[in-house]
């Protein structure tokens, strides 16, 4: 029996079954200039968000070889060393060491300092009563009550803030060790004579001509300038830092004219004290500058201690639900 021949058209059916290129799908992946997302083409693959966005990956510091996305940066062998407080402490300590060396070794900076001090003391542009007033602000009987008043104000604001609605969203409850910043500020001011008096006795620098009849020769560093810098500086930092109602809401520092005004007032007061001491002939300019560097070390250490053991409170911005009674 002869087999029935297959129709010849079946061979052409395979050609018709081949997939055809559609201009809206496959041709959309041809190389060309990139288009913006949402260009209107629903068949574009770049419209869909990727499952692992590459833009969110941290590829490390630029210019460093060998950094991969799992290793964003090199480990710091000295954590906390290069923060702002420690950087200020190291810088002030270095400047104080240089000034002390120039004073002790009778360097050229000391000779220029004495010429500058005589010129400022003889300046008539600054009235003597004004210079005397600002110089008296460096006395302990004036600076200590100011710091004690700010310490008491900060502690009262902390106690009142706990009971107000400002702290209802505080993370972890009331601020930890709220008493540490005011107490550390008082200890910082108490440490000033313990640091200044031994340096005065060791260096024994003679004072200006107006102080020639004094009973002592230790004038570097200036005790009045150091007392004013630590007292008014610590008071300003306490007011800026807090704690108090609304001091650190939603995890952010207070912004506005108040912190700037407080810091500017402290700086201007210390500048007035320094100029007044030199104008009245009580100290040389390097005596005042060395005291400011020493005060910078003390205040930076105070800030580092407070940041380590009494961190600032972060207040949640989410609404707090009222407690349900059982």
Can you characterise this structure?
This protein is mostly helical and 326 residues long. The protein has a domain at 84-309. Helix content is 51%, strand content 0%. It has nine helices and no strands. It has helices at 9-16, 84-104, 108-121, 128-136, 140-163, 180-203, 223-241, 257-279, 285-309. It is globular and about 55 Å long. The N and C termini lie far apart (97 Å). 29% of the residues are buried.
Instruction: Tell me, rounded to a whole number, the average pLDDT.
Output: 74
Binned strand content: under 5%
Specify the oligomeric state.
single chain
Q: What's the story with the biggest beta sheet?
A: none
Percent helix range? 40-55%
- What is Rg? 35 Å
Counting DSSP H or I runs of 4 or more residues, the number of helices is 9
What would you call the structural class? mainly alpha
Molecular shape? globular
Distance between the termini: 97 Å
Number of strands: 0
Low-confidence stretches: 26-31, 60-64, 67-71, 76-82, 165-173, 244-254, 313-326
């Amino acid at each position: 029996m002869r087999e029935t021949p297959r129709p010849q058209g079946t061979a052409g059916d395979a050609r018709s079954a081949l997939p055809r290129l559609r201009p809206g799908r496959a041709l959309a992946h041809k190389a060309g200039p990139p288009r913006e997302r949402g260009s209107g083409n629903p068949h574009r693959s770049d419209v869909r968000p990727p499952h692992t966005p590459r833009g969110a990956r941290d590829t490390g510091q630029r210019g460093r070889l060998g950094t991969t996305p799992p290793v964003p940066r090199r480990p710091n062998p000295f954590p906390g060393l290069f923060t702002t407080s420690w950087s200020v402490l190291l810088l002030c300590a270095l400047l104080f060491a240089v000034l002390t060396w120039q004073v002790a070794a009778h360097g050229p900076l000391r000779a220029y300092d004495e010429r500058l001090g005589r010129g400022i003391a003889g300046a008539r542009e600054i009235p003597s009563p004004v210079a005397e007033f600002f110089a008296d602000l460096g006395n302990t009987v004036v600076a200590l009550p100011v710091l004690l008043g700010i310490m008491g104000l900060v502690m009262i604001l902390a106690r009142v803030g706990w009971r107000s609605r400002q702290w209802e969203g505080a993370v972890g409850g009331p601020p930890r060790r709220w008493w540490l910043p005011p107490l550390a500020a008082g200890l910082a001011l108490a440490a000033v004579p313990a640091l200044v008096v031994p340096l005065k006795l060791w260096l024994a620098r003679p004072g200006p001509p107006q102080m020639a009849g004094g009973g002592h020769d230790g004038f570097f560093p200036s005790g009045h300038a150091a007392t004013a810098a630590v007292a008014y500086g610590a008071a300003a930092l306490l007011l800026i830092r807090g704690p108090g109602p609304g001091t650190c809401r939603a995890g952010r520092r207070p912004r506005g004219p108040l912190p700037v005004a407080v810091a500017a007032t402290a700086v201007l007061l210390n500048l007035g004290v320094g100029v007044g001491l030199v104008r009245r002939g009580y100290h040389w300019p390097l005596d005042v500058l060395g005291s400011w560097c020493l005060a910078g070390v003390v205040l930076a250490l105070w800030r580092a201690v407070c940041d380590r053991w009494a961190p600032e409170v972060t207040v949640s911005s989410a609404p707090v639900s009222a407690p349900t009674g059982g």
